[in-house]
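We now fix the convention by which a protein and its fold are recorded. The integers have meaning only within a learned vocabulary of local backbone shapes. A complete example follows; check for yourself that the lines match position by position.
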Amino acid sequence: MDGTKLPRSRRIAAKARCHGERVQGNARGWALAYKMIAERDNAKYSFARESRLLIVAKAKVWASEGWRVVITDQDGKSYAPPEFDQLLAA
């Protein structure tokens, strides 16, 4: 993540899965395969997930709310909203 905080209306309370040092990727220590970036006006949010299904679902919701959304896969290929279904078929 890029360190940007979500507005209070989008925050979900959760307990941390790991303690101590920060790890790159997820709590298990490996890099996440898909990254979504959503931009609108002066706001920018970034999310990373292992699952294609979850990242595409999140991206479709944000795009439907007027955000400019791009998904990048582990190979660095970028997908815009019209290409999200291609990512699911892969």
Notes: Confidence is low (pLDDT under 50) at residues 13-26. The first helix runs from residue 52 to 64. The chain is about 20% helix and 25% strand.
